[in-house]
UniProtKB/TrEMBL annotation:
<protein>
    <submittedName>
        <fullName>Integrase</fullName>
    </submittedName>
</protein>
<dbReference type="InterPro" id="IPR010998">
    <property type="entry name" value="Integrase_recombinase_N"/>
</dbReference>
<dbReference type="GO" id="GO:0006310">
    <property type="term" value="P:DNA recombination"/>
</dbReference>
<feature type="domain" description="Tyr recombinase">
    <location>
        <begin position="161"/>
        <end position="347"/>
    </location>
</feature>
<keyword id="KW-0233">DNA recombination</keyword>
<dbReference type="InterPro" id="IPR050090">
    <property type="entry name" value="Tyrosine_recombinase_XerCD"/>
</dbReference>
<keyword id="KW-0238">DNA-binding</keyword>
<dbReference type="InterPro" id="IPR013762">
    <property type="entry name" value="Integrase-like_cat_sf"/>
</dbReference>
<dbReference type="GO" id="GO:0003677">
    <property type="term" value="F:DNA binding"/>
</dbReference>
<dbReference type="InterPro" id="IPR002104">
    <property type="entry name" value="Integrase_catalytic"/>
</dbReference>
<dbReference type="Pfam" id="PF00589">
    <property type="entry name" value="Phage_integrase"/>
</dbReference>
<keyword id="KW-0229">DNA integration</keyword>
<dbReference type="GO" id="GO:0015074">
    <property type="term" value="P:DNA integration"/>
</dbReference>
<dbReference type="InterPro" id="IPR011010">
    <property type="entry name" value="DNA_brk_join_enz"/>
</dbReference>
Length: 363
């Protein structure tokens, strides 16, 4: 707090958490008295509450989204996908409301609206989590709310992890369909060979690639860690064939454009497959039930690579070093793939531990 003379008036300035309120008085004595009162109120938290009320009278959810986009989103990982979700909330009817008037009932209505749409429960949860991040910033960073009303509602549960495997024949059709986009074809190969996440592939820069040592360094991953990814021979050849770009990145696409390009390639690959099957005399009903290249996403390539590593004999610690999973719990879903190898090991131990009948009779 401070008092300064402004013309014939004495002005008191009160600042709390980056926000300022001023009051003018005719005499310095009045200014000092008011300042002393504010110090007491400040200690009790009253000044902070008044500042919050004054600011929130003007700030709508749309304003909060704009501020979040400008101040917080640029330093977050996965900002491309979050920016896409924020656009939904920016044009929603709720965006016109003042943030301090948004209630738990409002958010329940928005949740139910999302669940009534074509979105899966896990996707609806991502929209709600995105809005919750904005409301959390209103509480913690900007002093506009005391609590986040989103914390008081039940969110849809996350769906079970996808178990979609990618067959070699599907990969052949997919890579052929992606030949029209060299970037896309290269990203598919890199995902299959390294198991890197989509965001990690998109963020690759030449300064972090060492083709001689056959490694890629990821300075910032989804879980916040750095990671060195080993490159297979095929991955090394794929990266070495890429043209150099002015911005130093390996690829120009973002998350949205990559997903769109990938789905176009999947659609072309499926059309080619159906044409081949028609030429071979397959019935239309059979094709309609054929799951070939159906429900395929880019992230399934990572799942396929991790699954193949486990099936290839890599233990889970080695797999985690390649995939970037922070805990063994995250890889638990892949442990069933090791069952056949464990059975072989158990059989081997049984042979060494238990004598057979012939050896018993000989003794």
């Amino acid at each position: 707090m401070s008092i300064r003379r402004h013309g014939k008036k004495f002005q008191v300035r009160v600042t709390a958490k980056g926000h300022t309120v001023t009051q003018s008085f005719d005499t310095e004595v009045e200014a000092q008295r008011w300042e002393a009162q504010q110090k007491v109120l400040f200690a009790c938290g009253v000044v902070e509450q008044r500042l919050r009320a004054t600011i929130s009278l003007k700030l709508t959810l749309a304003d909060a989204i704009d501020r979040y986009t400008a101040e917080i989103l640029p330093i977050k990982r996965g900002r491309d996908s979050e920016q896409y979700l924020l656009k939904y909330w920016k044009i929603a009817a709720l965006a016109k409301r003042r943030v301090d008037t948004i209630t738990r009932q409002d958010l329940v209505a928005e949740r139910d609206k999302l669940l009534r749409s074509s979105l899966a429960p896990a996707s609806a949860r991502r929209y709600l989590d995105c809005l919750s991040a904005v409301l959390t910033a209103c509480c913690r960073d900007w002093m506009l709310l005391e609590t986040n009303p989103m914390s008081q509602i039940r969110k849809p549960s996350n769906s079970k992890p996808r178990e979609r495997r990618v067959a070699p024949k599907e990969l052949g059709y997919l890579l052929h369909a992606a030949r029209f986009s060299p970037d896309l074809q290269a990203m598919i190969r890199i995902a299959l060979e390294t198991g890197m996440r989509r965001s990690e592939i998109l963020s690759l820069e030449w300064r972090f690639v060492d083709l001689e040592k056959r490694v890629v360094w990821l300075p910032l991953t989804k879980n916040g860690d750095t990671r060195t990814v080993p490159l297979s021979r095929e991955a090394t050849r794929t990266i070495a064939a890429l043209p150099l770009r002015v911005d130093g990145k390996l690829f120009s696409k973002n998350g949205t454009s990559l997903s769109a390009a990938f789905q176009r390639a999947v659609k072309r690959a499926r059309q080619t497959y159906e044409l081949d099957k028609n030429n071979a005399g397959s019935a239309l009903d059979d094709l309609a039930r054929d799951p070939f290249l159906q429900d395929l996403r880019f992230h399934d390539l990572r799942h396929e690579r991790i699954s193949s590593l486990v099936e290839g004999g890599f233990n889970l610690i080695e797999v985690a070093a390649i995939s970037g999973h922070r805990t063994m719990q995250c890889l638990k879903r892949y442990s069933h793939l090791q069952t056949s190898m464990l059975i072989d090991k158990l059989d081997g131990m049984s042979k060494t531990m238990l004598p057979n009948e012939a050896s018993k009779s000989d003794s």
